[in-house]
Amino acid sequence: MKRNRYIKEITLVAAGGFFGALLRHGTNQLVPLLAGDSFLITATFIENITGSFLIGYLFILIRKRFDKSRDLSLFALTGVIGSYTTYSGFMVESLVLFQQSAMLFLTYLFSQILIGLIAIWAGLLAGKKTY
Predict the structure, then answer these.
(1) For 16-28, what is the mean pLDDT?
(2) Global confidence as pTM
(3) What's the rounded Cα separation, in Å, for the pair 55 and 61?
(4) CB-neighbour burial class of residue 100 (10 A; exposed 0-12, middle 13-18, buried 19+)
(5) HEC-encoded secondary structure of the chain
(6) Is residue 86 within 8 Å of residue 46, measured between CB atoms?
(7) Which pLDDT value is given to residue 91?
(8) Among 57, 92, 97, 111, whose Cα sits 20 to 30 Å from the Cα of 105?
(9) Is the separation of the CB atoms in 61 and 127 below 8 Å?
(10) Crossing angle for the helix pair 102-130 and 43-65, to the nearest 10 degrees
């Protein structure tokens, strides 16, 4: 029985990861078209901020509407959002900016963290108001 559960969990995360990767690729294609050569508004920035909001919102949705469904959590939070957001990309962009300018690096780093915290808080509030 444990083996079947393990396979089911892997399948849920992989399926969610498929959709998260598609969302990430779409964001990576769209943001440069809209933001141009901005060093602060990058696809990674948008992914991390929207991902922070969505993980807060979906956490509440799953908790309140779907009785803390582990399966839905694995699919949506671990799979979709985990694949969509990109901490490793954030680190690479941070390093590149650090090599260019300490001030640009600090602005990028702290804006991602601060706005990400605000986004997850907003997602939690929106989820509580909705559900």
Answers:
(1) 97
(2) 0.80
(3) 10
(4) exposed
(5) CHHHHHHHHHHHHHHHHHHHHHHHHHHHHHHHHHHCCCCCCCHHHHHHHHHHHHHHHHHHHHHHHCCCCHHHHHHHHHHHHHHHCCHHHHHHHHHHHHHHCHHHHHHHHHHHHHHHHHHHHHHHHHHHHHC
(6) no
(7) 85
(8) 57
(9) yes
(10) 20
